[in-house]
Amino acid sequence: MKTTDRRSFLQAGLTGLAGLASVPLLGGGLAGCAQTASRPTVAGGSATASKTALSTAKLTERVTVISGVPGNVIALAADDGIVLVDSGATASASAVRKSLGSAKVRTLFNTHYHADQTGGNALFGAAGAEIHAHKITRQWLETDFYVPAENHWVKAQPKAAWPTKTFREKGTLTAGAEHIEYGYLLEAHTRGDIYVFFRDSNVLAVGDVASPERDPVHDWYSGGWLGGRVDAMDDLLEIAKDDTKIVPAYGPVMTRAQLQAERDMMLKLYDRTTDLTDKGRSAQDMLEAGVLKDVNREFKDPYRFLYDVCKGHWAHYTNFGGNIV
Ligand SMILES: [Zn+2]
After folding, report:
1. pTM score, whole prediction
2. In whole angstroms, what is the distance from residue 110 CA to residue 115 CA?
3. Distance in Å, CA 114 to ligand 1 centroid
4. Is 54 exposed, middle or buried (0-12, 13-18, 19+ CB in 10 A)?
5. How far is the CA of 294 from the centre of ligand 1 (A)?
6. Per-residue model confidence as pLDDT tens digits over 69-117
7. What is the per-residue pLDDT across 35-81, written as a single tens digit (0 to 9) for each?
């Protein structure tokens, strides 16, 4: 059973930022996700990236994961240039570039707009890379936007950082011998998440839609919510095979079985939290009611996680039949 009516929300996505104007400007914020590349006050992202050691791990003959920038960047080596998935934080961009040797980056995918995935866009874009992303991700990068948790505006990224190839649903391309498939993951973590599947190498990049290491984050202000995350994980499970290497934005490479386990846990939390949201309960009420008990997960900041879950539920209550006014 789907937790959201996906089709009705394809149209909602078309309204983009306009639909966000009425979201209450209350606290919250994004644990570990960086919305801006330039402000040192933002947790995680560029401010800490330079202190983290970059490391590389070869996943397959053609695919390497670059970690500690501050999350994961994936590099596929093809005869006609490198394909990157995400560009890391701005502070890490030249180190990422250096780790790739002399080969040109021909194509860069952004899994979503956060600065720890797009901070290197300007460097690679200026050097001639085509930047592929969901249309909504481009909107966030090319427009000034407000961060409610920090009460400030973030400036748009420079034009060289903007995605040059955008899409709304899915697409394919080839890089040397590799067939690449990519597509939209509706409202899972932001409103512009995508996956990138290197079919021949059998590597699936999922951005922050899976979060095996950090507390899962819902950027409710940009449209992400727990129901969207569960649906998106179902979509990913349809794509992944038992032996597919699944690479999240942060943390270790996952197996399909591990992704399934995380999805099952998220569905359990979805059922519990929507039930309590329906009864008007707050994040604090949910914490005290023990909604995070009996799941195979140690949350580092349980209240923060539930706060963002609740904000997302309030923004999507018509999706689960809630009667909140
Ligand atoms: Zn993120």
Report:
1. 0.86
2. 10
3. 5
4. middle
5. 26
6. 999 999 999 999 999 999 999 999 999 999 999 999 999 999 999 999 9
7. 654 433 333 334 444 455 899 999 999 999 999 999 999 999 999 99
Q: Output the pLDDT for position 318.
A: 87
Q: Give me ligand 1 centre to Cα 109, in Å.
A: 14
Q: For residue 279, what pLDDT is reported?
A: 92
CA 225 to centroid of ligand 1, rounded, Å? 12
Q: CB–CB of 152/114 below 8 Å?
A: no
CA of 177 to the centre of ligand 1 (A): 30
- Residue 310 structure tokens: 């609740």
Do 197 and 184 meet the contact criterion of CB atoms below 8 Å apart? no
Q: Is 188 within 8 Å of 223 (Cβ atoms)?
A: no
Token pair 């329906």: residue: 278
Strand boundaries in 52-184, DSSP class E: 55-58, 63-67, 73-78, 81-85, 105-109, 130-134, 145-147, 152-154, 165-167, 170-175, 178-184
Q: How far is the CA of 79 from the centre of ligand 1 (A)?
A: 31
CA distance 315 to 225: 8
Rounded CA separation 3/271 (Å): 9
Kindly give the distance from the C-alpha atom of residue 249 to the centroid of ligand 1, in angstroms, as a whole number: 8
Measured in angstroms, how far is the CA atom of residue 35 from the centroid of ligand 1? 8
What is residue 308's three-state secondary structure? helix
Q: How far is the CA of 139 from the centre of ligand 1 (A)?
A: 16
Is residue 124 a contact partner of residue 69, using CB atoms and an 8 Å limit? no
* Cα–Cα dist 232/210, whole Å: 9
CA of 208 to the centre of ligand 1 (A): 5
Residue at token pair 């990422």: 96
The CA distance from 171 to 183, in Å, is 6
Q: Which residues lie across from 133 on neighbouring strands?
A: 166
* Tens-digit pLDDT profile for residues 113-129: 999 999 999 999 999 99
Provide the residue type at 15 as one letter.
T
